[in-house]
Write a structure and sequence with these properties.
The complex is a heterodimer.
Chain A: E1 2-7, E2 9-11, E3 19-20, E4 23-24, E5 31-33, H1 35-51, E6 54-61, H2 66-75, E7 79-84, H3 94-105, E8 112-116, H4 127-135, E9 138-149, E10 152-159, E11 162-169, E12 172-176, H5 188-194, E13 199-202, E14 218-224, E15 233-234, H6 239-253
Parallel strand pairs in A: 1-6, 1-8, 6-7, 7-13, 8-12, 9-12
Antiparallel strand pairs in A: 2-5, 3-4, 9-10, 10-11
Chain B: E1 4-8, E2 11-12, E3 15-16, H1 18-30, E4 35-42, H2 47-55, E5 60-65, H3 74-88, E6 92-96, H4 99-111, E7 117-120, E8 122-126, E9 129-136, E10 141-147, E11 152-156, E12 174-176, E13 187-192, E14 206-210, H5 221-230, E15 233-236, H6 238-242, E16 263-267, H7 273-279, E17 284-289, H8 296-299, E18 302-305, H9 308-323
Parallel strand pairs in B: 1-4, 1-6, 4-5, 5-12, 6-11, 7-11, 14-15, 14-16, 16-17, 17-18
Antiparallel strand pairs in B: 2-3, 8-9, 9-10
Chain lengths: ~260, ~325
């Protein structure tokens, strides 16, 4: 099978967010593979080991994105592609990303594309379904189980807590939800091997795209932090009295009961 | 003829979801003069649901009933919506940021080569621009976005933009439209219901969430009782899910669901930054934890330091009293 994973780097979940001039300050921030994309990498490896074929991890980013690609290679992916847009694109949106990926996939044989259900930074969840539509292939989001038998694909999909049992066929694009698997940590031999695995770097020129083709449809005009929450009130006294006071505060002050 | 805004409504078990009414209110905020056209899709008759959308502010409603729309699939719904868009040429679309909204809208936006601003929590006017505010980095920050061209396409987060008051005196046309939905490549064979009480976490007004401090699956029982008394839903921290106290479907946090209920009661949750990311924008936060040093107390409006198995039963009794 020709298996592809769409990967994005995101801020480490421990990072504190600071804003400078309406932009997120990312100097010195630690980056990781978007946690949902880790499920996608893991599942791609599992499916390849079962059915044969090759796993290619694709990211759109800058030269620093190589680190996350190498991590995916160390987990067991076979090849990586970095589409470096640092010099060509100022502000892309999900339309931009999907168009770039469409151009990338244009001449490729694809059986299975896996992506995260959402990236934990911008959290739009758009790129996967947008790309599937551009490629004219089926798309199932928020999957928690995947099994492929020939061309037939059986999927369990999380729908706000319920599970849908879905049947479709290859080629398909799926987005991965928590519960799908337990992503492995790269092993030491894996890390050593990853250094020698192929990592191809492309720019949008190489995909026969102009900036105009991928011009964003939406624009971010400002970023701000939510107001700091004031320190709350820790109640005191006998537990019974605390509970009474709490209920009274919720009912009379906050009016949420 | 005035401009049209489509509001794609959602029907679940014969009830229109509240977020669909909120989407009508959002459409009015985007353009108070636009004609709001509600759209409802299903496998069975939708006339009553259509009329209800009108009482919440839709000017008219288009319904499509077809066997292939019985279960939601992006393919089936996509075909129907694209045909309606083709006929009505709306200048924008609003939908709830629900499981279906998240799945369907990027597909339609892609087909229309349109932008899509998802998960909007607030709408502002800035001169001629309509500005959409949405959380990023799991609510640690917010961004303001605008569209670069004339087409508006947004999904709104449940529980943030208030619905208009129901007005029974409003009237409008509910039209059934025949659309032939072609065979689907993707089929829903079955749905396994796991959310026992039917209250979806993202739409719940009250959430009682448990963490590792709950200690076992059994330990969640008092939390379910408390949630029931409050008419709310039960959620959990990643720690509780990892320890198998409950299903991942209940997980709230950076991975998991992001929620903004009116009241969030965190029970035995330490308050890791990843959990806070999923709930810190809740309107009122109550923390119950044995450890007075827990981080959760830093963001809680009210805290009780104590044993949850002692506190929760007392709380249930006290709430029953004031609710009686």
């Amino acid at each position: 099978m020709n298996i592809y994973v769409l990967l994005k780097k995101t801020f480490d979940t421990e990072e504190k967010i600071t804003v400078q001039d309406g932009r997120i300050e990312d100097d010195g921030a630690e980056f990781i593979i978007n946690p949902y994309d880790e499920y996608a990498v893991e599942e791609a490896i599992v499916q390849r080991d079962k059915h044969g074929g090759e796993v290619t991890v694709v990211t759109i980013g800058d030269e620093d994105s190589e680190k996350q690609l190498r991590t995916a290679l160390a987990m067991g992916a076979d090849k990586a592609v970095l589409i470096n847009t640092e010099e060509d694109l100022e502000d892309g949106d999900q339309f931009t990303t999907a168009k770039i990926l469409e151009a990338f996939f244009e001449d490729r044989e694809v059986d299975l594309i896996l992506a995260g259900n959402v990236a934990i930074d911008e959290a739009s969840g758009q790129v996967g379904p947008r790309l599937a539509e551009l490629l004219g292939i089926s798309c199932v989001t928020t999957i928690t189980s995947l099994s492929v038998d020939g061309d037939a694909v059986a999927i369990e999909k999380d729908v706000e807590g319920d599970v849908e049992i879905i049947e479709t066929s290859l080629p398909v694009l799926v987005t991965c939800q928590q519960g799908l698997n337990d992503p492995r940590y790269p092993s030491l031999p894996g890390i050593m091997k990853a250094k020698k695995k192929p990592l191809e770097e492309l720019e949008i020129d190489d995909l026969d795209l102009d900036e105009d083709d991928v011009e964003a449809k939406t624009k971010t005009i400002d970023i701000f932090l939510p107001p700091e929450k004031e320190a709350g009130k820790v109640l005191e006294g006998e537990i019974e009295d605390q509970v009474k006071e709490l209920v009274s505060l919720l009912k009379n002050d906050k009016k949420v009961l | 003829m005035s401009d049209k805004l489509l509001v794609i409504g959602e029907v679940r078990e014969n009830d229109i979801r509240n977020v669909s009414f909120e989407a009508i209110a959002a459409a009015k905020q985007i353009d108070a003069d636009a004609e709001i056209v509600g759209v409802l899709l299903s496998g069975s008759d939708l006339t009553d649901a259509g009329e209800e959308l009108i009482t919440y502010g839709a000017d008219r409603v288009v319904t499509v009933t077809h066997d292939n729309l019985k279960s939601y699939t992006s393919e089936g719904y996509g075909q129907a919506i694209l045909e309606i868009i083709d006929e009505l040429s709306p200048k924008g679309i609003v939908m709830g940021h629900t499981s279906i909204g998240k799945d369907l809208t990027p597909k339609i936006a892609s087909r229309l080569s349109a932008g899509l601003i998802s998960d909007v929590v607030d709408i502002e006017k800035d001169g001629a621009d309509t500005v959409y505010i949405r959380p990023i980095y799991s609510g640690k920050a917010f961004e303001k976005k605008i569209f670069e061209d004339d087409f508006t396409f947004v999904t709104i987060r449940p529980n943030n933009i208030p619905a208009l008051a129901k007005d029974e005196s409003r009237s409008g046309e509910v039209t059934g439209k025949d659309i032939d939905i072609k065979d689907l490549r993707t089929i829903v064979k079955d749905v396994v219901r796991k959310s026992a009480d039917g209250i979806d976490l993202s739409e719940a007004n009250v959430i009682v969430a448990g963490g590792r401090g709950v200690k076992s699956a059994d330990g969640f029982k008092p939390l379910y009782e408390l949630a029931e008394v409050l008419g709310g839903a039960v959620g959990a921290s990643r720690g509780a899910c990892d320890a198998d106290y409950c299903d991942y479907a209940l997980q709230i946090g950076q991975t998991g669901k992001v929620v903004t209920p009116d009241l969030y009661i965190a029970v035995g949750i330490s308050g890791a930054i990843q959990h806070l990311a999923g709930m810190s924008n809740s309107k009122v936060i109550v923390a119950i934890n044995k450890d007075a040093e827990s981080n959760i107390f830093n963001i809680a409006d009210y805290g009780i330091v104590g044993d949850l198995f002692e506190v929760i039963p007392l709380l249930i009794e006290e709430i029953k009293k004031v609710k009686a």
